[in-house]
Amino acid sequence: MVHLKLYIMTDVSRISAVLWGGLGLPPWFNFPELAGDKLRLSMTETVNRAVRGARAAGISECVVHEACPLDWPSLDDVSVVRGGETLYLDGSFAGIAFVGQGLVGHVRSTTGVETNLQEIKWNGRRVDELTIFALYAGALGIPTVMVHGASCVLETLLKWMPDAPVGEDVENELTANLLNGRFCRPVLPNGEITTSLRFRVPQLANFHALLPGVNRIDDVTTETHSAGVAGAFADYCRSGLAAVADWLENTGVHASCKN
C-alpha cells in the first residue's frame, strides 16, 4: 500500500519569516490564555476538516505547519511543525494545502505585507509569503492541492498561479481535488532571482542590511540575489525581525503576546 503524505499550511499571515526569522509560530509560542480563544478553535476545526478530507482521499499522513495557533489536544491524528526554519517538504508528499489563509482577520491589504514591510518582489514582480511557499513547493515537484481562505489574501498568489485550486469547502473539495488530480504546478521563474524588500522607514532597511548577502538599494529598500527559487526562498526565510512592530502594534493581537 502506498503511503501518501499531505503538508497542511495554516494561515501564514504573510510575513512570518520577517517577524520570527522562521516560518509560522516560534517554538516558544504557547500562551495558556489562548486555550479557549476563538481564533485558535476555529483554525483547529478548519485543520481537522482538511485532515478528514485528505483521509477520505487516501492520504496516510498529514503534517500541519502551525502558523496560526492550534488547540493541540483537539487535533485529529497529525504531526505538527512549529518554529521551523523552512518548509519540511520532500518527495514523499503528494501535495501541499493552504488552509484558513486570512482567518486571523488582521490583514489590511492585498499586497501580502503589513505597514512596516510595504512590498516584496521577485525580479520586479510582487510576491507575498503564501506565494513564495507555493512556488517553493512547486520547485520541489510538490503541487498545490488546495487554497482556502479570504479572497483578498489570495490575490497575489492567483496572479502567479491562476489555476490554483481555490475552495471554500475545505473538507469535501480537498477530497475531490486529491481524487481527481486537480493540482496546480506553478510556472517557475528561471535563473537568478532578485528579491527586494521595501520598508516603511530607513531604520528597518538598516536592520535587514546587516544580514550577510543583503544589499541596500536606497533608504528603504534592500536586495538579495539567489540562484533559483530555492535560493530566493532561503533568503526570505532568513529575513529576520525587521517588521515585528507591525504585529505587536496590531489591535487584533492577543494581549498576552504583547507583555
Would you kindly provide a brief summary of this structure?
Helices cover 29% and strands 21% of the residues.
Explain what the structure shows.
The chain has a single domain, classed as Dipeptide transport protein (Rossmann fold). The chain contains 8 helices and 10 strands. With 259 residues, it is an alpha/beta fold. The strands form 2 sheets. The protein has a 5-stranded parallel β-sheet, with helices on both faces. A 5-stranded antiparallel β-sheet has the order 6-5-8-10-9. A hairpin with a 2-residue loop joins strand 5 and strand 6. Helix 2 packs parallel to helix 5 and helix 3 packs antiparallel against helix 7.
CATH superfamily: Dipeptide transport protein
**Could you say how many structural domains there are in total?**
1
Number of strands: 10
Number of helices: 8
Instruction: State the assembly state of the protein chains.
Output: single chain
Helix content: 25-40%
Q: What structural class do you assign from the helix and strand content?
A: alpha/beta
Largest beta-sheet details: 5 strands, parallel
Instruction: Write the H/E string, N to C.
Output: EHHEEEEEHEHHEHEEHH
Mean pLDDT over the residues:
84
Overall 3D form: globular
